[in-house]
Inverse folding.
């Protein structure tokens, strides 16, 4: 099963290497990863999407907690949470497809981030499934390339 | 008053109670060596950096203090790697100081540059690259705190040359405070209550204890618990000395080279009380068949050790010593009530012990390696510190020397590092000058760090090396004999130095022993000598270590000797006659 793990770490050099090294060294998989400082500039938040059975997930949490620079670990999947991914997707457009691309953008509440002569770049955020739907529908219209972010997640309000 | 980084380093080491460090100088640590030149810290110059790391490790295991080693950058630092990994696998507190090229040169492939923090990341508890001299004192204190607390382990501090020459004002540091590191030492009282309940209910309990007992200094509490509740004890390799080896409740080691009694008792138990041990594959054998009928209580300071390999029913995270004390309190120290309860189980265990004790076929012509170890035990009355190399020598030392004191058996268990024994003995002898320190070695392993004989001689360390010389890489040969149809591929070491002459060339005393009658007199002479001594025992070449559990098998399936088939699968005694206590 897939899990989203949120890791609060010291904002120091080398911390990401320790976290990534732990996953590779113990044979755990990282499906997506996102890192940025938090409100407190001395800490960073790493959000990792990984998969494994309960035993593997328990070990991942425990091993992460063992790292000196890791302050706290949450398996947010076990609680109520909101998660988002971001995608930037450049689509070929011509007279025949332009309207359809705009229609999809509207439907997915995607913004136009860049416009060119024969292509335009959409910016969309949402759950993983939603991003995948958008890509699936844009594909037949001609995707030139897309870049997706890792997932970020936050616990719902009024939870510990 | 301003001080240089090197001066601050040496001062903080002293504040941490460091009185000896093991090292080897080089270009980027010149600033530090210059301060050490007239500092009150003793420096032991090993002949290879690997020797320095193992010596720090041996010092730590023997004394319980943090061992410190130091090297220069690049090759000096990478030579420490095996020693750091050895300490990591066995949870030994060492601090490794490595020189690094100046901060401005880092990343530019400078002369003798290596990213040692990166290289050692998976084999350290933590590591630091100090980029600012103002961080230095704090980092050193944190490193020692991390190395010695919680589940201990090695910490690397990488010191660029410009940081040790830079000046700053040095003031006393605040106590270490790390928000991401707060080991749980006190066990959960509810869990301890549950464990006590499980002990009261059990009819066939076994204590399985490991290195955690030694590390937390809990040998006394463990002994008290076993004697109070009359539970037999089996120890892992690293646990040896954590419970008296001569006690009637002692089953010996368990696992791949465990005793018949220990492996059967564990397999048939209805309660495993795992204390500071980690269910290593060499201990459990085929994991699905490990103690299938047992409730498992696991006491360990490292939460990640719990339920990693074996499902645990009653986990207790905490310091072994503290938890055992609480558990004893919970059980109420009333002697006697358990004797009757355990009668039947202990009788069964005793029967197993009598059925197949550790044994070998004595010889009047050939020196049996087990005989040498037995003699060492007899002559030292079990009071020596024994270090080992890795392989058959290690297993025979573990089997035939009976350890009654903790911190007396120093061996690379997790990593299985050949070449560990001699430098570890040097570290142990440095830390414990009043004890006899003996490295039980093989002719293969000893050659991996034999240069350290020079170190032992230089510092007049009366370390004894007993080489069980079978002119083979014996354990590999044993596997080839049993599992590879006696195809002895690359294990013959008949081409070897004359160890007696080699010892003499280093300035040590050398002995060559080829007949069983010479064993005792030579051992007596060497053990009474104040010099570094090397005894080359030419032992029976094809002696094997038994019992042996074939890899992938349940620890119930033991080969008990050459030509003997695996013991038939013993019917669980629980099925045979329901023991109800």
């Amino acid at each position: 099963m897939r899990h989203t793990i949120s890791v609060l770490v010291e904002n120091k050099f080398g911390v990401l290497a320790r976290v990534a090294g732990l996953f590779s060294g113990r044979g755990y998989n990282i499906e997506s990863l996102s890192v940025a400082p938090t409100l407190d500039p001395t800490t960073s938040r790493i959000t990792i999407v990984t998969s494994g059975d309960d035993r593997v997930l328990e070990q991942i949490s425990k091993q992460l907690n063992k790292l000196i620079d890791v302050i706290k670990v949450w398996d947010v999947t076990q609680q109520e949470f909101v998660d988002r991914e971001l995608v930037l997707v450049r689509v070929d457009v011509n007279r025949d497809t332009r309207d359809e691309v705009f229609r999809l953008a509207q439907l997915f509440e995607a913004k136009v981030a860049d416009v060119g002569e024969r292509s335009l770049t959409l910016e969309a955020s949402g759950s993983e499934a939603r991003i995948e739907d958008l890509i699936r529908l844009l594909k037949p219209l001609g995707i030139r390339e897309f870049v997706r972010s890792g997932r970020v997640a936050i616990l719902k309000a009024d939870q510990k | 008053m301003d001080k240089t980084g090197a001066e601050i380093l040496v001062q903080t080491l002293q504040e941490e109670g460091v009185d000896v460090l093991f090292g080897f100088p080089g270009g980027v640590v010149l600033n530090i060596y210059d301060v050490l030149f007239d500092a009150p810290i003793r420096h032991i110059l090993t002949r290879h950096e690997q020797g320095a790391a193992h010596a720090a490790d041996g010092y730590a295991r023997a004394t319980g203090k943090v061992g410190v080693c130091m090297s220069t950058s690049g090759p000096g630092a990478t030579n420490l790697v095996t020693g750091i990994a050895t300490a990591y696998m066995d949870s030994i507190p060492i601090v490794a100081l490595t020189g690094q090229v100046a901060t401005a040169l880092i990343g530019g492939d400078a002369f003798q540059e290596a990213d040692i923090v990166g290289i050692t990341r998976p084999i350290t508890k933590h590591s630091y690259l100090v980029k600012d001299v103002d961080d230095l004192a704090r980092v050193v204190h944190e490193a020692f705190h991390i190395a010695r607390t919680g589940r201990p382990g090695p910490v690397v501090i990488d010191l660029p040359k410009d940081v040790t020459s830079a000046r700053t004002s040095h003031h006393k540091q605040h106590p270490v405070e790390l928000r991401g590191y707060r080991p749980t030492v006190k066990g959960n009282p509810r869990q301890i209550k549950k464990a006590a309940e499980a002990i009261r209910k059990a009819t066939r309990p076994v204590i399985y204890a490991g290195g955690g007992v030694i590390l937390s200094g809990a040998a006394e509490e463990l002994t008290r618990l076993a004697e109070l509740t009359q539970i037999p004890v089996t120890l892992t390799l690293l646990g040896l000395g954590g419970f008296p080896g001569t006690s009637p409740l002692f089953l010996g080691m368990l696992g791949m080279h465990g005793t018949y009694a220990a492996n059967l008792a564990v397999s048939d138990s209805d309660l495993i009380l795992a204390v500071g041990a980690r269910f290593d594959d060499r201990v459990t054998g085929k994991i699905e068949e490990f103690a299938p009928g047992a409730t498992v209580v696991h006491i360990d300071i490292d939460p990640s050790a719990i339920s990693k390999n074996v499902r645990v029913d009653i986990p207790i995270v905490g310091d072994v010593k503290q938890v055992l004390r609480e558990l004893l309190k919970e059980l109420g120290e009333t002697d006697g009530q358990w004797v009757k309860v355990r009668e039947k189980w202990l009788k069964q265990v005793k029967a197993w012990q009598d059925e197949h004790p550790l044994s070998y076929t004595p010889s009047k012509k050939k020196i049996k390696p087990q005989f040498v170890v037995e003699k060492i035990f007899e002559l030292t009355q079990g009071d020596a510190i024994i270090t080992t190399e890795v392989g058959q020598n290690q297993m025979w030392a573990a089997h035939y020397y009976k350890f009654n004191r903790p911190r007396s058996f120093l061996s690379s268990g997790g990593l299985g590092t050949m070449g560990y024994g001699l430098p570890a003995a040097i570290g142990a002898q440095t830390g414990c000058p009043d004890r006899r320190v003996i490295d039980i070695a093989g002719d293969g392993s000893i050659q991996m760090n034999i240069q350290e004989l020079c170190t032992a001689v230089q510092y007049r360390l009366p370390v004894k090396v007993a080489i069980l010389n079978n002119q083979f890489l014996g354990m590999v040969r044993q596997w080839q004999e049993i599992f590879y149809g006696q195809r002895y591929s690359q294990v013959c070491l008949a081409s070897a130095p004359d160890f007696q002459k080699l010892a003499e060339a280093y300035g040590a005393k050398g002995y060559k022993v080829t007949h069983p009658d010479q064993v005792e007199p030579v051992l007596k002479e060497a053990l009474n000598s104040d010099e570094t001594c090397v005894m080359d025992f030419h032992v029976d070449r094809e002696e094997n270590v038994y019992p042996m559990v074939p890899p992938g098998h349940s620890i119930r399936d033991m080969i008990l000797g050459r030509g003997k088939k695996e013991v038939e699968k013993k019917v669980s005694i629980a099925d045979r006659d329901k023991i109800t206590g």
Notes: Chain B touches chain A at residues 117-118, 121-122, 125-126, 129, 146, 178-181, 302-304, 307-308 (CB under 8 Å). The CA atoms of residues 192 and 327 of chain B lie 6 Å apart.
